[in-house]
Write a structure and sequence with these properties.
The structure holds two protein chains of two kinds. By secondary structure, chain A is an all-alpha fold. Chain A is 71% helix and 0% strand. The two termini of chain A are 15 Å apart. Classes of the chains: A mainly alpha, B alpha+beta. Chain A: The complex is composed of six subunits: RnfA, RnfB, RnfC, RnfD, RnfE and RnfG. Chain A: It holds the Pfam family Rnf-Nqr.
Chain lengths: 192, 265
């Protein structure tokens, strides 16, 4: 149990997927304009990463390892992730049309979000069992959502801030904030 | 690697793929969304270039807007009147639209206008316009001819000839992409029917225009006096034609001393 908690904290805060491993930067900068949209994106990513960690774990342990074809992991994992993203897209289209249109192209792009593939490959690399994989996936995706939400909060505030020098408005100040956030998250490295 | 290895690998990937395909198919049935019939039909009638000329995010966006009645049937500038007609039949609206074409308000090709200096930077209007003096062209309002509009055009309708951008009126679909590209704001939409157009953008005084270009508007007001329909007005040292009032009589073009009111070119 203690190990599981450590994995979650480690994945969410200490080795935050966006801010210390620099995976999934595209949606981090692309969908973090509004708090509400980023919450939806975060939820979608949590779902996709957690479930894909589970499915990829099953497929890896159950099919790829016994057949000695673990070199196929990347291809098979991408297949699973793409299918899951399609599923999320269908569900969102049915139950939350506004969120579906707000996420726009970033929703199908979760497929190529390297954070998702990164987690599944990391699980394999660290030789986690199924439970640990799912917990790690949950931790990573919660970390992604935390970073996304903090960023969205900052951007909502800085968007109409008149004190920011004109050349810094928009993307530049966002990049600077992202860098400062990464430094702040670096402080968590003392936790574990 | 043995042949069996290859077969196993292929079988596993194919098996996983097929399984996922079936599951997704089932999910698609379970989460089916009712899509507006009209929207689908309108989407099929649209050209599908996804150029964004209508102001909506791609053809899908416009189809949704037309189906909801937010956009008129003729909202697609690319499809023109043909598409508008088809869409109007689908939605039951009436299609009335004027075919527009882009028009470059400059006649100062390399042979008739001077240069301030030689420019050896990137051959790109936006960058050239940032160089001091607003680019190498003698007239700071004129077309520099580095072809930013040419690369913006997805329909091969604009070309640079002798340092001057020219719109091919037959190919132009009025998507408006070139307008956004031109740093001199030289391109505007004009009705396809309009035959007389002022091919100058300079608001300098007549003397200053003469110094840099032999085919610029010198604001002599001859056209204004020649027009019997009150369609031509010289405002801020530049002649403007009101296309609603213009009857294409050509009196202004005859009187123009620098011949910048050109006939459909």
């Amino acid at each position: 149990m203690k190990e599981l908690v450590l994995i979650i904290i480690g994945a969410a805060l200490v080795n935050n997927v966006v801010l210390s491993q620099f995976l999934g930067l595209c949606p981090f900068l692309g969908v973090s304009k509004k708090l509400k949209t980023s919450l939806g994106m975060g939820a979608a990513v949590i779902f996709v990463i957690t479930v894909s960690s589970f499915l990829a774990g099953i497929i890896f342990i159950g099919i790829l390892v016994p057949l000695h074809i673990s070199y196929l992991q990347t291809i098979v994992f991408i297949l699973v992730i793409a299918a899951l993203v399609q599923l999320v897209e269908m569900i969102l289209k049915k139950y939350s049309r506004p969120l579906y249109s707000a996420l726009g192209v970033y929703l199908p792009l979760i497929t190529t979000n390297c954070a998702v593939l990164g987690v599944t490959l990391m699980n394999v690399q660290k030789e986690y069992n199924l439970l640990f994989s799912v917990v790690n996936g949950l931790g990573v995706s919660v970390g992604f959502t935390i970073a996304l939400l903090i960023m969205a909060g900052i951007r909502e505030k800085s968007e109409y801030n008149e004190n920011i020098p004109v050349p810094f408005r928009g993307m530049p100040i966002t990049m600077v904030s992202a860098g400062l956030m990464a430094i702040a998250f670096f402080g968590f490295s003392g936790l574990i | 690697m043995s042949v069996t290895g290859v077969i196993i690998a292929a079988a596993v990937v194919a098996g996983v793929g097929i399984l996922i395909g079936f599951l997704l198919g089932a999910a698609d049935l379970a989460f089916k969304v009712e899509v507006n019939e009209i929207e689908l039909k309108v989407r099929e009638a649209l050209p599908g270039n996804n150029c964004g000329g209508c102001g909506y995010p791609g053809c899908d966006g416009l189809a949704a807007a037309i189906a909801n009645g937010e956009a008129p049937a003729g909202a697609c500038p690319v499809g023109g009147s043909v598409t508008a007609q088809i869409i109007a039949e689908i939605t039951g609206q009436t299609a009335d639209m004027v075919k527009n074409v882009a028009f470059v308000k400059c006649h100062g090709s390399n042979s008739v206008s001077s240069l301030k200096y030689e420019y050896h930077g990137n051959m790109n209007c936006k960058e050239a316009a940032l160089v001091s003096g607003g680019g190498p062209k003698g007239c700071s309002f004129g077309c520099m001819g580095y072809g930013s509009c040419v690369s913006a055009c997805e329909f091969d309708a604009i070309h640079v000839q002798d340092g001057l951008a020219l719109v091919d009126r037959e190919k132009c679909v009025a998507c408006g992409k070139c307008i956004a590209e031109c740093p001199k704001n030289l391109i505007e939409m004009v009705p396809y029917q309009a035959e007389h157009l002022v091919r100058c953008n300079s608001t300098s005084k007549g003397k200053d225009v003469k110094a840099v270009c032999s085919v610029g508007c010198i604001a002599c007001k001859m056209c204004e006096k020649a027009c019997a329909f009150d369609a031509v007005k010289v405002v801020n040292n530049l002649a403007h034609i009101d296309y609603d009032k213009c009857t294409n009589c050509g009196a202004c073009a005859q009187k123009c001393p620098t011949k910048i009111i050109v006939i459909k070119k």
